[in-house]
Amino acid sequence: MHHRPIATLLALSAMLSACGGGGSSGSVGGSTPTPTPSSTPTPTAAGCSLRERQDWAAAQLREWYLFPETLPTSLNPASYASVDTYIDALTATARSQRRDRYFTYLTSIAEEDAYYQSGSSAGYGFRLGLDASRRLFITEAFENSPAQAANVGRGAEIVAIGTTTSNLRTVSAIVAAEGTAGLIDALGPDTVGTSRVLQLGGAGGNRIVTIAKADFDLQPVSSIYGAKVINDGGRKVGYVNLRTFISTADPQLRAAFAQFRAQGVTDIIVDVRYNGGGLVSIAELFGDLLGRNRSTSDVLSYTSFRSEKSSNNRTRNYTSQAESVGVTRIAFIGTGGTASASELVINSTIPYLHANAGLIGTNTYGKPVGQIAIDRVTCDDRLRVIAFATQNAARQGDYFNGLAGTVEASCQAPDDIGHQLGDPLEASTRQALDFLAGRSCTPISPAAVSASGQRTQAQAQRQAWESERELLSPTRPSTAQREVPGLF
User: Fold this and answer.
1) What pLDDT is recorded for position 18?
2) Radius of gyration (Cα) for the chain, nearest Å?
3) Which portions of the chain are predicted below pLDDT 70?
4) Residues 194, 181: contact at Cβ < 8 Å?
């Protein structure tokens, strides 16, 4: 999630943010709900040598990092060939404690601004998941993308990948030889015009298609299935699926909730099963839209920095919105790809709805901390630094192992790619409807964590079985891939 600037840092732009998830990154918080865009930078060589950029990044961490006690007292930058690897070394201790799982990173100002303002991204326009048998499936396809133009959608299996029909390699052969990194390489670089031949199976039938990456604006709420009212045996249930927390989600969420309010809906399904986070301002709007029953004195969330930076601490109360709905029960659909801003929205409802707010699906990622963004415009560098933690009105916020141990109600359910998202026959949607109707279910097991901070093997196996497919993500994901896990 992202917020507007919280302070002037030696003429640098600092923004609170909560992003990333599903193994990539994440953040939250801020004194202004929307990031202040930097002007498109014109990078120059002055001050942008590797050592200068490393020293600059280290100085920001020493000033702002939420876990300063974990930073090494001395670490020679010369031992690292990039700014990224140096930052990873600086944050290694916090990462071993599961408090910073690559949430602190360097990115491009221009790339990030383009994404958060409009969802701009170059790609095929689908989301990929790898199952336990190492089979690669399309879990979602986006509107106005190359994938949609090729009639490639949810449930299709990518059997083989090549640059031509004559050099197709099967997914199983690629994984056997090169691991999942080989799949990412096979799909090609994130540049417009990159073309791949895909052999498909599953939904849509067996066929071969050629798809080229193109720029497209990702819609936060699908125009096809993103928001609707479901008639469940005579009960009206609102369904909204939010893909990512970017600026253009504001009017789309308002339109969805205006529809719910007009039809008297009070039971709502919030589907954030693949949502890796985004702007805090949108998370707060989402909370407001779910909170017509709340008073403006009720706390939605607390944002807290380290003690030396406590002047930036912030309490966000509920704000009345014309489209707000007086929700009585909410079913949040989540998975391991649900992180950051998505988790903030879920967590904020617990003190008020208690067991009437349920988590459906599997455990979430676990990111109760957020980032500020510090810009060095001359180098087109934006440093995302974990600098604050978030809590709900009951001061609950230590859910580094996911929200299954914090919510008061939950129901296990698989991600059923045999049906479209929001279809009442889709397993997680069906379980959400059953929860709202008061039917019994099997709770989600919280992740068991050893003293070293790692999940036990048994829990890891159970989590793998529950989630069925792991969203595919590069080691160094783009901004869009941090916030939309599995995006290619």
Assistant:
1) 56
2) 22
3) 1-46, 447-468
4) no
Q: Which helix (H) or strand (E) holds 315?
A: strand 314-317
User: Rounded to the nearest 10 degrees, how much is the dihedral formed by the CA atoms of 36, 37, 43, 48?
Assistant: 30
Number of Cβ within a 10 Å radius of residue 298: 14
Instruction: Compute the distance between CA of residue 469 and CA of residue 349 in angstroms, rounded to an integer.
Output: 28
Query: Which two three-digit tokens encode residue 129?
Result: 């998941």
Pairing, β 267-271 against β 329-334: parallel
According to the model, what pLDDT value does residue 451 have?
37
Over the stretch 381-427, which tens digit does the pLDDT of each residue have? 999 999 999 999 999 999 999 999 999 999 999 999 999 999 999 99
Residues 6+ apart with CB under 8 A from 293: 326, 327, 352
H or E element that contains 288: helix 280-289
Cα 388 from Cα 121, distance rounded (Å): 28
Its pTM stands at 0.88
The C-alpha atoms of residue 184 and residue 312 are separated, in whole angstroms, by 40
Judge whether 147 and 138 are in contact, CB under 8 Å: yes
100-111 burial string, b = 16+ CB within 10 Å, else e? bbbbbbbbbbbb
Helix (H) or strand (E) holding 375: strand 369-376
pLDDT of residue 447: 67
Structure tokens at 262: 């007009």
